[in-house]
Amino acid sequence: MSIQILCPDYVQTVLAALQSAGHKAYIVGGCVRDSLLGKTPADWDVTTSALPEQTEQAAAAVGLKTFRTGIKHGTVSVLCEGVTVECTTFRIDGDYKDSRHPESVRFTPSLAQDLARRDFTINAMAATRGTDGWEIIDPFDGQKDLQAGMIRCVGNPIKRFGEDALRMLRGVRFAARFGFIIEDKTANAMYACAGGLKSISRERVREELIGMLKSPDPEGAIKTLKRRGLLKFVFPYADVTASARGLNQTSADSPLFRLAYLLYDAIDDAVQKTTADLKLSGADAGYVRTLLALRGEALQSTPLFARQMIAKYGKDSIPALALRKVKGEDTTALSDTVAEQLACGACVSISELAVKGADLSGIGIPKGKEMGAVLGALLDEVMKDPTLNRKETLLALAKQIYKEK
């Protein structure tokens, strides 16, 4: 069967280079799956009968540069039109000792054997350009499962998950991304193999979780993780089952916001442990904790309170209020006030005062604790009344404050 695939010219150039050198070459995996779904692939991978050194030779013959990005596993990256295309030799994986990576690989001339080592049927398809379109090589009925909306392991799911436990989270992510269901044997194998996630790096777990939170159905993903015994390995310090309700109504553009949503009912200690456990960057962890720090505060819709919020939380005040709003509280008025204060550049820090340390030195206020106390007092006054933030006004006020101290 021939179909139309909008494969970029740079990928076709790489395929042609390999085929002209006498090797078999196919696009493979996610790019085939996404093309069949009518989606634009994020990247394009090539599988080939060429050994790594033969891939390098074929690329060099047409003037393309190569990089040995994964030579141990047969992967050579080919640079074409400023884009790198990963080309991997047909291979058979050896034993998996860490529930993630094969101890060894063995190259094979068989495309079918290469496809047989992959995770799910929808990812175990390859395609090559024919005279009338693209020919799909699909030994495991991936097209059928795509049409049925089914996530199904290639071969024995217990074996697949035993080889690489991260595949369980990938399966849940794909289901949430595409709105698919997980085939019964595959789903049951997840429950049986759930403990394998303990061997997976937390960075890998985090990336799969973020992918679920970016999907159209993160709430469904959390339910599936719970039902299949996986959730406790993703969130060992907080039970997010109940807090997932309503998650789909939040924006997929902000997975960190959705993570904060999930942790809304968790105690502070669990929040701290979870952000650390997931190996979030300092900035990302700080953002999540800031959104949740506002949970217990009594809110007022006054300009002063808005300025105090900005002083404490900065621009994160807006999403922090949005989080409380999606959790059922009307924060519209305060959000509008915060936005107004941000727009007008309200002074909320000592650095934004119209006077500096040198100005205070000029009127006899010594540097050190005394000057710091005066600057702090000036900021308090300006927070209450922003119209005071003028140099002459503040200098006069500084003299009075210093004299009273």
Detailed description of the structure:
The mean pLDDT is 93. The strands form 3 sheets. An 8-stranded mixed beta sheet has the order 1-10-9-2-3-6-5-4. Strands 7-8 form a two-stranded antiparallel sheet. The protein has a two-stranded parallel ribbon with strand order 11-12. It is α+β, with helices and mostly antiparallel strands and 405 residues long. The longest helix has 16 residues, at 369-384. The chain is elongated, with a radius of gyration of 29 Å. 49% of the residues lie in helices and 12% in strands. α12 (255-262) packs across α14.
Give the averaged pLDDT, no decimals. Answer: 93
Question: Compute the gyration radius: what is it?
Answer: 29 Å
Structural class: alpha+beta
Q: What is the number of E strands?
A: 12
Q: Provide the helix percentage.
A: 40-55%
Outline? elongated
Low-confidence stretches: none
The percentage of residues in β strands lies in 5-15%
Largest sheet: 8 strands, mixed
Q: How many separate helices? A: 20
- Order of strands across the main sheet: 1-10-9-2-3-6-5-4
Distance between the termini: 88 Å
